[in-house]
Here is the input.
Amino acid sequence: MSVYQKGKNYYIDYYFCGHRKRECIGPDKRLAETVLRKRKVEMAEGRYLDIKKNEKIKFEDFGEQYLELHSKVNNKSWRSSDLHNVGTLKKYFSGRYLYEITPVMIERFKTERIKEVSPATVNRGIACLKSMFNKAIQWGKVEENPVTKVKLLRENNKRLRYLETEEIVRLLARCSKRLKPIVVLALNTGMRKGEILGLKWQDIDFKRGIIYLYNTKNGAKREIPINDMAKTALIRIPKHPCSSYVFCDKNGSPVKGVRKSFFTALNKSDIINATFHTLRHSFASHLVMSGIDLNTVRELMGHKSIEMTLRYAHLSPDYKRRAVDVLSKRMDTIWTPELKSGISENRLAFVTH
Here is the structure.
């Protein structure tokens, strides 16, 4: 803490909760010294910046409020997203009041977390922390969001992983009897894991060949056409007499997860760098590589904007080459013999020179 002069005015310089504070007091040095002493007393008594006792909420306590009042109400997949992220954040920030958390602390969190997980996973944690502070501001717990001063890590999203045709064949051959129809459905519909495991028989119209999804990630109803492979896989699934779920255990309860069996199948198939969500990437990628327009893919995937669909349009040079070859054949049919002759003569002149 110090008092210094700049021009005709005196300033006070001090730190509060890791934040550097500077105030212009005026031309009176004694007044500046008095204000600085006052700031020391305010911070010691917890009155600085109007921080009251009922606003001194610990991070872990607010995390529980955030999950209960916000996540459970607004995020249908909160268990796999917010619950996980808040749990991770607690390991770094528990024991601190919300107003004590600074951008420097968050940068340290980034530094430590990146040693364990990918940049994308780190960014999801930071995004959750930012959302928590936004809610804390709305609920009158803090006055500012320290996360706004922290930059996200750069993610490499240039090419999303999808399964090649031969990988799909190997994977299906290694899937267990219970897992195989789930994988087939994911590859042929682009449905998310939660959407598949929560699927009920009444949501399937076999006559029209459509699956109706009501409980989607973005909250919008979605209709998915069923191709022959998906239809065959669904028909072969025995119905439980006491359950409406397509995929359920012997008691009729919906299957909670397939993580262990899916990764077992991946290992047996010698497939690396893949997750269950890779099946959704594969659905979109193979559609695009088959010539399906992006807007149709967007509708099938349930994306609200075309920007999200563009992430799946990672075509290889081979497919781009095939596209321009198709154009060449089309152009060849409209060229007259005279035009072709002129092109050949020009090409010969170019070579000889």
In short: Residues 346-353 have pLDDT under 50 and may be disordered.
